[in-house]
Each structure stands twice: as structure tokens, then as C-alpha cells.
Amino acid sequence: MDLDLFAERFSSALPLTCLVYDNRGFGDSDTKEGQPRHEIIPAQQESDYSDAITYAQSRSDVDKNKIGIWGSSYSGGHVLWVGAADRRVKAVLCQVPCVDGWANFHRLVRSDFVPGLNQLFQDDRLARATGKPAGIIPVTDADANKLSALPTPETIEFFGVWEKKSNWKNEVTVKSYVCFQLHGHRPPALDPSSNVPRFRIEAFREYNPSANIHRISPTPLLMTVTENDTLTPTDISLAAYARALEPKRLHILPGGHFDAYAGTNFDRNTKAQTEFLREYLCT
Known about the structure:
The protein has about 280 residues and is of the alpha/beta class. It is about 40% helix and about 10% strand.
């Protein structure tokens, strides 16, 4: 998603090194043998953030006592969790973050789709327990009457362009979507005889990235939102920001979710983020 452009802007303006990577199973990153690609398990991705911090600290060109983390959209929620839990982090920058998956899910998904989705989630769990491949759904679909993970017009437009210039695929596992729905809420109990890895299922119910936002302090937090975000709704993010403690900073950009990444907003956005990094990480 052109995140390297953010890294280039930061590293050209500040005396810092940026580590940019694809989440496991996406882009150029592999995954464990036998595990599906394009599966989003937040707890794994959060753990990968901490592993990335460890790697960065091992490098001679990095000050291990001045580590900042940056995340956008789904990963914008991850950095809230990691920033609270991993005290090696000295600055947190979250951009158009997903802060509450349960609330987010019910904004995105039509209510008449929910019963069918719940059945889909159950069927996929049972199928995977018997060794069948992970179920797949599209990330976006131009037909509003068809199931997709992110059913918004701005998502269709953005990923339609991104698919043409990258190796991104318009697919995600059903289990990823289960995780998105259960973001911060308990899933149904599993039969103890099931061979589905329980620790992963249990991790879903623990995952609500803004639950510990008040524990990020005294680490500085910058939250960037857009005025009309329909993918990770602005009001949900602002409610989470209100619970954060000082030092914190809020930057509101015009436009929708993907307007934070490009166009005239890119300069406005990276300028504010650069100044935040200069003040809290590069002094």
C-alpha cells in the first residue's frame, strides 16, 4: 500500500532508520509450513511487531532505546496494543486505525447478512478441523449483494487500483473475518474434542486493540484519522482516543479512509507525523 513512501519521507527528513515489512502470509512474506496465506490473526501480527522490534534492536545502525512503531488501518489497531504491552516502544503512531472490531463489523455488514455469516464461520471451523483447506472470501466485491470482507465503495476503488500494480490478491480467509467480527468479544465455545488450535481461537476474544489504550502512557501517542472514514469509522476512533492518557496528539485530515495515504493529504499527514517523531523520538 505504498507504505515505503512513508518510510522514505521519515528517513529523508529525520536521523532514523525505518524497518518496513509485509505481514506474514502477505506480499513478499512467507508463512509457516502448512498454514494458509492471506490469513489475518491479530495476535500473530502483534507478536510479529515485537519480533520486528527485536530485529531492529539487534542492528548496529539502530538506537535500541529509541524505538517507535507505526501502523495503519488494521495494523493501526495493532500498534495500540503493542504500544501498551511492549515497553521498549517509545513512540506510537496509528493512522486511520481499527480500534474496535465488533463495532466496526456492525457498521460494515448489513444486518440481514449476519446470520449467514455466523453459519459460514461455524462451517469453516468444522471444515478446517477435519483438515480441509481454509475457506476464502473476497476482500472487496463491486456487487453489494455479494459477501466481501470490506464492503465499502472506497475500498473497491482503492484495491482495484492497488491490485493492478502489486502482487496483492483479492482474497482473505474466512477465519480472518471471524477474527474481525470477534475483535474484542468472546467467540462461541469450542467442543473440547475439536482439533482446532484452541489457543488461536481463545486469542480472538482477548483482542480489542483499544482496550489498553489508556496504558500506552507515558509513551507518546499520535492518532491520525480522517473526517469521513467509513471503513474504520471516525467516531469509533475518536471515542478510543478520548480514553488515551497524555502525552497524546490527534491529527484530523479531510476525506475518507484511503485519503490518508496519498494525494495532497500525504504531505499534510507525513509532515505532522515527522514533527511528532522529531519531538518524541529524535531528540
